[in-house]
Amino acid sequence: MKYSGLAAIKEQSDQDKSSRKDSVDLDVVATCVEPPVSAAVASLGKGYSTDEDLMLGFAGGDASAFETLYRKYRPTLYRFFLAAVADEGLANELYQDTWTKVIGASREYQVKAAFSTWLFTIARNNLWDYFRKFQPNLVEFDTVAELQAGDVSLPDSINVELQPDELAVLAQQAHSLHQALDRLPLKQKEVMLLRYIAGMTLTEIATSIEEKPETVKSRLRYATTKLKNDLKHTIAGFQRLA
Q1: Which pLDDT score is estimated for 148?
Q2: Considering its fold, how many domains does the chain have in total?
Q3: Rounded Cα distance, 91 and 242, in Å
Q4: CA angle, residues 190, 191, 195, in degrees to nearest 5
Q5: Are 185 and 88 found together in one domain?
Q6: How far is CA 235 from the centre of its chain?
Q7: 113 contact partners, CB below 8 Å, separation of at least 6
């Protein structure tokens, strides 16, 4: 992505019409975690103190407010889709479509949750729409896996969260991690991505996927257990942690 905000989305949408497989500058995406100081200061100078204020400002016609949100969330949102589908072209298409839907829904935007929760709700709904349309077999498998998981009781002593030392090991083994994530049922994979890529709390995830916090906690526990059992056979440093 060499351009930002509304112009970038329009340009990318035009490109997507002719080809889904686009070139993605991952180095640029990875380093743009924070919005440029000039954009942030410009937005804050207009009285925006939160992401929600920025979105309301954009809904009122302030394009610079959207630019700030776009620069802040674009790397996280793209990583979410890339981890979910493991295909750069498809991830970019879903990513651009999500921003287009954010723009389309801006006039009706109301502060009912954190902006990040609202954004990733649109993102995960977009992702599930894709799976239902193009990979219905995965959705069917996920339903069966969810039922089977309900028949297996895991002890409460199993930690729901990955610990800092575990995350440090996984950070050095991205390929193995992505393979292990792909072997998780979709709903378990989803909560892992929302937790560790989007950085959402259990309550925020529950709001986004419209499930009870207990359900989110259960899915995280099953996913964490499967991930550890899977990776301890492929990552030497992970064996002692599993």
Answers
A1: 46
A2: 2
A3: 31
A4: 120
A5: no
A6: 25
A7: 204, 207
**CB–CB of 5/67 below 8 Å?**
yes
Q: What is the mean pLDDT of residues 115-138?
A: 91
**pLDDT, tens digit (0-9, with 9 covering 90-100), for 31-67:** 333 333 344 444 544 679 999 999 999 999 999 999 9
95 with 214, same domain: the answer is no
241: CB partners within 8 A, 6+ apart: 163, 165, 166, 169, 228, 232
- As a whole number, mean pLDDT of residues 192-206 equals 93
Residue 146 contacts residue 187 (beta carbons within 8 Å): yes
| Residue that is written with structure tokens 């440029």 in the block | 36
Cα–Cα distance for residue pair 40/44, rounded to 1 Å: 6
CATH code where residue 202 lies: 1.10.10.10
The domain containing residue 39 runs over which residues?
5-134
pLDDT more than 70, % of the chain? 61
Amino acid type, 170: L
The reported pTM is 0.70
